[in-house]
Structure prediction request, 294 residues.
Amino acid sequence: MLVSLTILIVQPFISKAQPFVDIVALNTQNFFSNYKDSSQSPVYIQDNFLNLFIPKKFGKGHVFLLRFNSEQLTINRAGQPTGIFQLYSFSIPIGLQLVSKNQKWKYTGIIIPKINSDLRDDVKNDFQLGGIGLVARVFNENLQVKFGLYYNREFFGNFFMPLAGVDWKINSRFQMYGTLPSNFRMEFKLSQKWNTGLGFRSFTRSFRLSENYNNDFIWVRENQAKVYVEGFILKNVIATFDVYRSIGYRLPRNDFYNHGIEKITNPIFANFNDNFGFTIGFAYRILTKKDPDK
Prediction:
């Protein structure tokens, strides 16, 4: 359960084909590689996420949506030159999911205010605003398709991401769900409590740097192909472990100029080679549809 802002908010919150919702989720992602510069210095990146979700049903199937999402990204470069740098993200997505009278359509709209920063000085320049519009067509209790658009005012400019996905329970053991290109899973049920599967994840965001770095920014882009296993270790507590391979993971030195200011050459933000990483996560999960196999 690799949880991030985009992953959490673009999937339907209470879905017939995806019969669960994670109220609290905590996970840590760990990545080891080497920089592509002449030093080939090792780099260790740890990404910690904490997410809270408060859904409130009203009317005939409508849902008020409120989240708190946070991220702590730590970059640790060994060798020469050495350095440790930390980036942070805090957001409060808020929105509505409305259901048509015939229960065949779901319409989700979300506004996403957030702060992305190294938090080394005043955060007045660190604010971003984005949103999501998503439409889902529900064919039956086991199948729905969805499409929409994600937007965020990143520090490098306007960022648009078209969305498309399917939640499909093929049989009692196999299902697929998610929204591309942000997050998608093909899942196989091992037992009443344990699942395994293949997944893909894509995540783009930017962080404003402090005045010491001329208020410039870092643009983080990552893609992952993964194998995962997850299961209930307590009644409502689920644990997840995955191993992934990065695909074009970039945390580049500044690709752009900021108001004509000369580029910064902080060596922490040089590009590095793709490699393997792993994630460990826990969540408090509520099932919204009874599992017939239990």
